[in-house]
Specification:
By secondary structure, the protein is of the alpha/beta class. About 50% of the residues lie in helices and about 15% in strands. The chain has one domain: TIM Barrel (Alpha-Beta Barrel), CATH 3.20.20. The longest helix is centred in the first third of the chain and has 21 residues, at about 45-65. It is globular. The structure holds flavin-adenine dinucleotide. Flavin-adenine dinucleotide binds near residues 204, 226 and 230.
Length: about 280
């Protein structure tokens, strides 16, 4: 069992715990995005094993009758071993998910992985005519061009600001510039994408911008936020819009929890209060 200090951000160590959390979300009109924690395997065996766990999760989602989809990190299912290993494992997951009507998201990692991730996404989104989504990062300078390519592919696209510390040669490092790009790309997506836009942000300004764009273009869209972050806002938005919560679980919870706790002062204070019992 994970300690209470981490349970705000991580749903547990087992699929059963994660699905139980998703049931409580569903009761409030929020859909779960299940993510098995773990990344950066350099060997095939653990990458194959995690891909197999994702395949089994599809059955678990069906058995539990919850509203949930999956989100997978490329380096967790073999990208560090080879593009072909990643593509093969992603294909196995998407195939199982398609049989049960479960949507599969592909997370985006650092800029050295973008080409392989978009190629694999294009292959399966085209092969399965949607049913797959990919994340793109507003901080990367290439994203404007990537969006032009993605507009012609069936499937959903999640826009985030970008979580990786990228060099200035490939990324905007100034926060205001990233925000500007986020707004611009969101507008492009609402204008050009027919298969749905996912707004992956907790930022009230970006959320309002998305609502304005939806009113202007009527494009179908969803909000996506992380477990433990602005949950009140998630539940409020869910009364009117589609809202998804990214729900990480698994034995490798510590480094994810540590990142969440350190990224904002409020999160760290919350964690410390949990330890001190106040
Ligand atoms: P920020 O720019 O960090 O903050 C802007 C404002 O949002 C703040 O001023 C505050 O008002 C509000 N806010 C933000 N965080 C908090 C908080 N913890 N508590 C209270 N208010 C807060 N990144 C990737 O690189 N690849 C991925 O595949 C990826 N997938 C993601 C999936 C989801 C569902 C989400 C939500 C994020 C994902 N990210 C991913 C992370 C993303 O790139 C950002 O690092 C992260 O979302 C922080 O940016 P932001 O837009 O939420 O807000």
């Amino acid at each position: 069992m994970i300690p209470p200090i981490a349970s705000r951000f991580v749903a547990g160590e087992t699929p059963a715990e994660a699905l139980e959390h998703i049931e409580t979300l569903n009761d409030r009109n929020v859909t779960g995005i299940l993510n098995l924690l773990g990344e950066h395997y350099e060997e095939r065996a653990p990458a194959d094993a995690d891909a197999e766990t994702y395949r089994r999760l599809v059955g678990d989602i069906e058995d539990a009758s919850v509203d949930a989809c999956l989100s997978v990190k490329p380096s967790q299912i073999g990208l560090g071993v080879g593009d072909d290993v990643f593509e093969e494992n992603l294909g196995r997951i998407v195939e199982a998910a398609q049989e049960e009507g479960v949507f599969v998201w592909v997370d985006m990692e650092d800029h050295t992985t973008t080409d392989a991730t978009l190629d694999a996404y294009e292959r399966y989104a085209t092969e399965y005519d949607g049913g797959v989504g990919v994340c793109v990062q507003a901080n990367l300078k290439r994203t404007g061009e990537d969006l032009t390519r993605l507009a012609g592919i069936p499937g959903k696209v999640r826009l985030v600001k970008g979580a990786y510390d990228e060099p200035a040669s490939v990324a905007y490092r100034d926060k205001a510039e990233v925000n500007e790009r986020y707004r611009e790309y969101l507008e492009y997506m609402f204008r050009e994408f027919e298969d749905g836009v996912a707004v992956g942000s907790h930022d009230p300004e970006m959320i309002d911008h998305a609502i304005d764009l939806h009113e202007e273009y009527s494009t179908s869209f969803e909000f996506q936020m992380l477990m433990g972050v602005r949950e009140d806002a998630q539940f409020d938005l869910a009364e009117e819009y589609e809202v998804y919560q990214y729900v990480p679980y698994g034995g490798k919870w510590f480094s994810y929890f540590y990142r969440r706790a350190m990224e904002r002062k409020e999160n760290l204070l919350f964690a410390l209060r949990a330890v001190l019992g106040r």
